[in-house]
Write a structure and sequence with these properties.
- The protein is an alpha+beta fold.
- The chain folds into 3 domains: 144 residues, Creatinase/prolidase N-terminal domain (Creatine Amidinohydrolase, Chain A, domain 1, 3-Layer(aba) Sandwich); 143 residues, 3-Layer(aba) Sandwich (Creatine Amidinohydrolase, Chain A, domain 1); 293 residues, Creatinase/methionine aminopeptidase superfamily (Creatine Amidinohydrolase, Alpha-Beta Complex).
- It is 34% helix and 20% strand.
- Helix 13 packs across helix 14 and helix 15 runs antiparallel to helix 16.
- The termini are far apart.
- The relative contact order is 0.08.
Length: 609
């Protein structure tokens, strides 16, 4: 991107700022739907700065432009910001001020005579994020103004909002009708003394209305808003995305259609006793549009809808199990190819990811990957959110560790799996690699075997995965487990498994990842990940009477036994691995040809200590 274009865009933004009496304008790297993956239409931060990283926030004053981003993107930002006049603020560094603190200092100390008003586009901030920013700025005597200054200046070559058609997601996959879901949501609203709800998060909309689409990378969502009322449900969407057949089906289910932008005047005229919204997922512009005559506005986070969506019904869970079996076939074929055929021709991290996609695409009901595959060879595997590009990806040469984190979107369900494998001469595996691999595996198994009372939170179980590493002064900087959607987002709330004090308990029917890891900078990364379902535990002969849960592991793929230090494993851990491998074989072998069967049988042979 031309540096001159960035400079011209900054000048155009400053002209708008001057016209609106603003001292600064903030452009976050977000969209109106709190999406993990944004459509290019909303990549305003990248457009104004030239920085293409996934995380960042720009601040523009009359004489400076700055970009806050974390340590994952320092090198990328340094390269992409060069010559643009945009300065890099290294927010992971301990001495880097927050945006609010920097603005308070800049306006107070450098420009005390200028206006003390800062602008943001309220569509790009959640209600809670907007309130937090406003409170922080007001503490320094600065006011916050809601105004969109990017739309009037980004008039050339701005990508359109995606126009992929909506499709109806069959009840045979969803396991519950739209009518039932709406009824349950309305009951939950009544408990909060509300008779209306505003929904902006695309996963929630897709789940509630049993609709899917292709508007968002890796997540089968449809860009839209929903307002649920006591006797009415309105889907706000570009009507060109809805075929006559789909519109008729939606109408039969009690869903009215309106234009995407019509949600704002609709909310302004809304008649309701109380309105519920999730302040972490509904944007500030929607909140500001709600009829001011409605005095009861309930900010519920998590919303009842998010909790409902996270509890998978039996049809959804059986679909997940089926998706895992289809995924297991693809993974078996990929790893067999990797060991027997791949190295006969030059390979890179990208060619490996492409080949895995090829195998998955052969599977029944496959639609897409569930996220961009992470194939980290040697030192690249130590970069937790590593993403190979054609310009910068490693060649697979010699001996080393490959970390492969991948997943698929199937009509039946969503998969997410990480396996760490050795490529090359088995005799060359360093003892340190085996030691680290086994520490990770022990924590992975400990979490998978957990039994716990109803009401337990993820942070109360997290130590099970960390314990063996902590005993040796080792840790990892990511969460141990995230929620997973059903043919929806690969990352789902409200509960998770990490050290943070998330107060949301784990509920029966929740699907989580179990993924501890060890990362040795410039050497290798090791992560082992399965998906597990929270299910009622079996009977205890001497129970004190509480309801107990446990995890059912649903991912089906062998672990690389070559990387295990068997001497570190207990008899119970070996029994667990052997039982797991026996189940992988039993579930997968009937779907393979003879050559593939022989390969998998060898990988799943019992460990004998």
């Amino acid at each position: 991107m031309s540096c001159m274009k960035i400079i011209e865009r900054l000048a155009a933004l400053r002209a708008e700022m001057k016209a609106h009496g603003l001292a600064a304008y903030i452009v976050p790297g977000t969209d109106p739907h709190a999406s993990e993956y944004m459509a290019p239409h909303w990549m305003e931060m990248s457009w104004i700065t030239g920085f293409l990283g996934e995380t960042g926030t720009a601040v523009v004053t009359m004489d400076r432009a700055l970009l806050w981003t974390d340590s994952r993107y320092y090198l990328q930002a340094e390269a992409e910001l060069q010559g643009t006049t945009v300065e890099l603020m290294r927010e992971s560094d301990v001495d880097c001020p927050t945006i609010s603190d920097w603005l308070k200092s800049d306006i107070t100390n450098r420009h005390p005579q200028t206006t003390n008003t800062i602008g943001v586009n309220p569509e790009m901030y959640s209600v809670n994020a907007y309130k937090k920013l406003r409170d922080e700025l007001e503490d320094g005597g600065i006011s916050l103004k809601s105004v969109d200054l990017i739309r009037p200046i980004w008039t050339e070559n701005r990508p359109d909002i995606p126009m992929f058609p909506l499709y109806i997601y069959d009840d045979k996959f969803a396991g519950e009708s739209v009518e039932s879901k709406l009824s349950r949501l309305r009951e939950a609203l009544a408990e909060k003394r509300c008779d209306a709800a505003v929904v902006a998060e695309l996963d929630e909309i897709g789940w509630l209305l049993n609709i899917r689409g292709k508007d968002v990378d890796y997540t089968p969502c449809v860009i839209s808003y929903v307002v649920v009322e006591a006797t009415k449900c309105t889907l706000f969407i570009d009507r060109r995305k809805v075929s006559a057949t789909s519109a008729e089906e939606l109408q039969k289910k009690g869903i009215a259609l309106a234009g995407y932008e019509d949600v704002f005047p609709y909310l302004n005229k809304l008649q309701a006793k109380g309105v519920l919204f999730d302040g972490n997922r509904v944007n500030e512009a929607l909140y500001e549009a709600i009829n001011p005559a409605i005095s009861r506005k309930v900010n519920a986070s998590p919303s009842p809808l998010q909790v409902m969506m996270s509890i998978k019904n039996e049809v959804e869970l059986n679909g997940e199990r089926e998706a895992m079996k289809v995924d297991a076939v693809a993974l078996t074929r990929f790893f067999m190819w990797l060991e027997n055929e791949a190295m006969k021709t030059p390979q890179t991290e990208i060619t490996l990811a492409d080949k895995l996609h090829e195998f998955r695409a052969m599977g029944k009901n496959f639609t897409d990957e569930s996220f961009c595959t992470i194939a980290g060879w040697k030192g690249n595997g130590a970069i937790v959110h590593y993403h190979a590009t054609p310009e910068a990806c490693a060649k697979i040469e010699g001996n080393g560790v490959l970390l492969l984190d991948s997943g698929g979107q199937y009509l039946d369900g969503t998969t997410d799996i990480t396996r760490t494998v050795w490529i090359g001469d088995e005799k060359a595996i360093p003892a340190a690699v085996k030691h680290d691999f086994t520490l990770v595996l022990k924590g992975h198994i400990a979490l998978a075997k957990a039994r716990f009372p109803k009401g337990t939170r993820g942070n109360q179980l997290d130590v099970l995965a960390h314990q063996y590493m902590w005993a040796e002064g080792i840790t990892y900087g990511h969460g141990t487990g995230h929620g997973v959607g059903h043919f929806m987002g690969c990352h789902e709330g409200p509960a998770n498994i990490r050290t943070d004090n998330n107060t949301n308990p784990m509920r029966a029917g929740n699907v989580f990842s179990d993924e501890p890891g060890i990362y040795r900078t410039n050497e290798y990364g090791i992560r082992t990940e399965n998906l597990v379902v929270c299910v009622p535990a079996g009977n205890f002969p001497r129970t004190t009477g509480e309801t107990y849960y446990e995890f059912e592991t649903i991912t089906l793929c062998f672990y690389d036994k070559r990387l295990m230090d068997i001497s570190m494993l207990t008899a119970e851990e070996i029994d667990w691995i052997n039982a797991y491998h026996a189940r992988v074989a039993a579930e997968t072998l009937p779907r393979l040809n003879d050559e593939e069967k022989a390969y998998l049988e060898e990988k799943c042979k019992p460990i004998v200590k």
